C-alpha cells in the first residue's frame, strides 16, 4: 500500500516537473546562459567578427578602462539627470491627472484609456512622431512658440543643450499614463470617511489633498518611483531613434553606449563590462527597494 502511494506521488511530482521544464529551459537558455557568457566576456577583449580566434583574455583591463573612460561617466551623468527629472515629472503629472479624473471629470474610463495609450504604444513610433514635432524649422512645437511671439525658439534635438530635455519631456509624457492609472487605483482605495470627516472639520480640498491623499498614497508613490527609476535607467529606444546619443554626446546614456561599443566598435568585452556596471546600479536600486519595503510594509 505504501509503495503504491509513493509510486503515485512520484508520478505526480514527475508530471509537475515536466510541466515546468519548458519554462526552466527558457530561463536557462535565454537568461542564465547569456548572463554567464557576458560575465566571462568582462575579462576578455573579443572581436567577434574573427570568431573564437578574436578572443584575448585581458583580466581586469576592462575595469581599468571603465574608470578612466570619460564617455562612460558622461553617459552615467546623463542617465542620472534623465532619471532624476523624468521620474518626478511623470509622478507629479500623473498624480494631478489622477486626482482630477477621479473627482471632477465625466467619461473617466475613456479619458483613462486615452492617457494610458502612449504607455502601451510602440516607443519607436512615438519617438518618430515626436522627432517630427521637435523639428526646429517646421515642427508644430516651434511653430506654436513663434505664434506666441518667441523669436529664439529652441533647437530641440539639434541642440546640445535642448536634446536631453526634449527626450525627457517625451518619456515623461509616455509614463504619465502609467503613473495615473496606479494613482487612481490608490486614490479609490482611500476610505471616503476620511474626506467626509475633513469636510465636517472645515478642511478645504487643497488641505485634504496634502493631509489625506498624499500620505495615503505613500506606498503607491514608493512602488512607482522604484519601477520608473529602474525603467528609465535602461532607456534605449528613444535615444536610438531621436538622437543616437548626440549632439556631442549630450544624450548618450549607458544602454546606448553599450550598443555602440558592441555593434559599432566591436568591443564586446568592454560592452559587457559596461552592462555589468549598469546591472550593479539597478541591483543597488533594487536593494534600496527591499530595505524601503520594511518601512512601508505596514501600509500595504
TrEMBL record:
Domain of life of the native organism: Bacteria
Domain ABC transmembrane type-1: 76-289
Keywords for this protein: Cell membrane, Membrane, Transmembrane, Transmembrane helix, Transport
Pfam family, one: BPD_transp_1
Subcellular location: Cell membrane
Residue intervals passing through the bilayer: 20-44, 80-101, 113-133, 162-185, 222-243, 263-288
Topology in the lipid bilayer: Multi-pass membrane protein
PANTHER family according to UniProt: ABC TRANSPORTER PERMEASE PROTEIN (PTHR30193), INNER MEMBRANE ABC TRANSPORTER PERMEASE PROTEIN YCJO (PTHR30193:SF37)
Recorded family membership: Belongs to the binding-protein-dependent transport system permease family.
UniProt-recorded name of the protein: Sugar ABC transporter permease
Source organism per UniProt: Paenibacillus rhizolycopersici
Taxonomic path: Bacteria, Bacillati, Bacillota, Bacilli, Bacillales
Amino acid at each position: 500500500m505504501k509503495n503504491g502511494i509513493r509510486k503515485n506521488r512520484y508520478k505526480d511530482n514527475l508530471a509537475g516537473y515536466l510541466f515546468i521544464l519548458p519554462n526552466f529551459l527558457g530561463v536557462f537558455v535565454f537568461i542564465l546562459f547569456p548572463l554567464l557568457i557576458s560575465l566571462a566576456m568582462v575579462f576578455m577583449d573579443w572581436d567577434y567578427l574573427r570568431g573564437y580566434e578574436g578572443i584575448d583574455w585581458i583580466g581586469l583591463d576592462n575595469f581599468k578602462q571603465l574608470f578612466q573612460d570619460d564617455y562612460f561617466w558622461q553617459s552615467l551623468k546623463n542617465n542620472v539627470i534623465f532619471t532624476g527629472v523624468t521620474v518626478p515629472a511623470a509622478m507629479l503629472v500623473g498624480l494631478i491627472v489622477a486626482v482630477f479624473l477621479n473627482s471632477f471629470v465625466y467619461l473617466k474610463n475613456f479619458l483613462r484609456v486615452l492617457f494610458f495609450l502612449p504607455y502601451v504604444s510602440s516607443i519607436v513610433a512615438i519617438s518618430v512622431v515626436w522627432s517630427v514635432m521637435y523639428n526646429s524649422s517646421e515642427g508644430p512645437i516651434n511653430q506654436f512658440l513663434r505664434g506666441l511671439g518667441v523669436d529664439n525658439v529652441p533647437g530641440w534635438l539639434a541642440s546640445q543643450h535642448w536634446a536631453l530635455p526634449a527626450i525627457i519631456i517625451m518619456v515623461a509624457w509616455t509614463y504619465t499614463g502609467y503613473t495615473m492609472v496606479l494613482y487612481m487605483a490608490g486614490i479609490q482605495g482611500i476610505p471616503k470617511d476620511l474626506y467626509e470627516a475633513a469636510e465636517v472639520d472645515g478642511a478645504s480640498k487643497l488641505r485634504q489633498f496634502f493631509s489625506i491623499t498624499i500620505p495615503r498614497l505613500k506606498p503607491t508613490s514608493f512602488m512607482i518611483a522604484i519601477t520608473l527609476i529602474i525603467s528609465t535607467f535602461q532607456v534605449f529606444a528613444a535615444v536610438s531613434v531621436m538622437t543616437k546619443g548626440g549632439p556631442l554626446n549630450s544624450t548618450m546614456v549607458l544602454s546606448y553606449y553599450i550598443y555602440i561599443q558592441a555593434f559599432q566598435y566591436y568591443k564586446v568585452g568592454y560592452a559587457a563590462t559596461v552592462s555589468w556596471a549598469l546591472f550593479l546600479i539597478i541591483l543597488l536600486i533594487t536593494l534600496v527597494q527591499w530595505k524601503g519595503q520594511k518601512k512601508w510594509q505596514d501600509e500595504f
